[in-house]
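Researcher: Batch entry, complex prediction.
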Amino acid sequence: MEDRSLVNRCRQGDRDALRRIYEKYRDDLLIVAIALSHDLTIAEDAVHDAFVGFARTSRNLHLKRSLKAYLATSVANRVRDLLRARQHRCLGLEQARVTAPDTSEPSREVSWNERLEELSSALEKLPQEQREVIVLHIHGRMRLRAVAQSLGLPVNTVKSRYRYGIAKLRSIMDGEAPI
Amino acid sequence: MKPDNKIRTLFAESTVNVRAQYNDRIINDAFAALGQSNRTTSAAKQPHMWRIIMKNRMTKYAAAAVIMIIGLTIWVSIFGGPPDGATAAWAKTLQNMQAMPWLHVITEIRLAQGSEVEEWWRCFDPSIRAFTYSDGRINYANYSEGVGYSYDGRENVLWIHPVTEKYNVPGARSPLAQLSHRIEQMKERGIEVVRREFSRLEGRRVEIIHTSSGVRMVRDVERNLLVSSEGKIQGSPGTFRTTYHYPDEGLAGVYALGVPRDAETIDLRPNAEVSKLLREIQRRFDEGYGDHIAMVLHSWAEQDGGLKPWQVVMLRQQGERERVDVYTAGDFKHLVSLYGDIKDHWPDLTIQQVEEYERNDAISWQKIYDGTYTNIGNRDPASKRIRFNRHRGRMGSQGGGASDSMSVLSWFEPPIYGSPRPHWSVTYEFLDADPNHEGLIGIRIVKGPLKAARQIAESSTTERIRTDPVFTTSQAECYWLDPSRDYLVVERTTFREGKETSRSFTLETKQTGDGRWYPSHIRHEWSEITSESGQTRRLDKRIVLDTAPIFPEDIFNADFMFNAK
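Model: Structure tokens for the complex:
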């Protein structure tokens, strides 16, 4: 109920509501982004872009599912775009500006703990499409049917991606494949 | 445990730490986007492409390429030839441009969604730069006088603030320095002149230059000055047209750019007394410690007083050249670390010991400024891949208590507070004398969302919140400086929304052979304001400084990054 009220207030241009949504979901979204990308720069950008995109479109936003699921899906989409873009992006001056020391250096804007490091290291071994399903289902708390809707995929495809992904994680977690 | 249960547990136990800067950036961008969304429906449907591009970091990269092309055309057309050789002639033309009293550039960018017109003025002596944007924003900076004006036409507010082009100004510091960089870029992009023709335009003999990038430029032959350039924007269906004007009379000031006289004015400049102190800090920051090698040992301070190794940072400086090596030193399972070598001596290591232990595969981050370029290498801890970036000119420090230079550890950079953002204020004030900080000078710098701060303060029922800016704005920093020890920062406290978020103490200081003070032991504490637990983390920094270093050959050569001691 609170989320719907916050979104309604955002539609009216209420900044406090927008700030409240950000503060409420920021950590979860960053965890989703880090788990999906295992790259701090991409994670920071994905959450930034997803949230600013949410603010920009909030006027016309009519939520049919949970706000967290909506934002988590936005972040997942953005991570996917950024990972793709990185494949053929030239390093430029702008990138140099955002580069900072070690990922866990306090001077970075965002850092994560060892549990998330372990998690994202393991997930990195999975194909992106399996990673997305697992992260959205487990951390986004989305039903697999909702994940399928979000990604525009058949439910069975999403279920098999989840199953295969979990099976591979089993081998990674059990030490059969190096992390 | 089932793997999905284990994954659930890992997710549940995952945490992130977020610094105030990140929150500020997102919140401000989101507020701007929200405002844009709510202002007009048509604006939402047909956004100002250029503004959106510049607000979005990723599309900014693409935009940077576009701007680069436009920038390149300037140089191609100015120098009237392909980017090889003839540098002296190019420099001559550039000098002509610089000798002009004023340069006024008007760029129109036409995209499918509409067009944007932006104007730019530049005077080199005195150094003045001004921009007007199609959305009503106007910036005017007089670097010679150190004062800048930022006007937001949407709010009809004019901010007056300090500016500098000395620090944290990425890129080349002068047009002449830009020249060689542009030449290299043009060479890399393979841009060349494919056809030239001469004509007359408004009574002047002009050369029309066609380049392989599809850009057409017009050069005034007699004055040897660029008149215009136009063409397609690479990677976009849009086009641009830029015209260059060289008026004798320049801008009389920010009001000459169209800022209404009745605009609300917010003056963010510090008063004379604070300015004097900031200049003093700036001077010492600039001077630094000369040639040196410094070792900074980063440890996590545990509850029982123990120190858990985390990083070893080696700072080297020779003349203008700098090198920073950040080595992993923690007991990490998946990362190559110096831990095995250093654990028995931690934290009582010497520079000589660490120099023996330094190894390339344990470097997590490296920066070399070779006098021309700043080169940064960053190893991704997961993939182990190293990403390199090269940046023309000297990159500013990371600031915020980072350990990437001795000056950053000892002082702070006043200019980092000088750039206002829309709706933000910066205020400076001396702190009252405090018996717990006897003999020290305290200064508080408060940054915050101006209007939001006012609203919070006005609606608060607590007198303290209504009156104390620290409790009504989003960010504040308090510094206690020791005038008897070169104005070293002895204590630095940061606040967010009135809540203390971090604190640095200089626990011990030492002097170099020639009497300059430096911090030799710093403790940095910060609260996890973003988590419910409110944990406090403590980072301990031990610093050893040698101001008579002997450097191996090529240590400042970027060709040996991640590959040389």
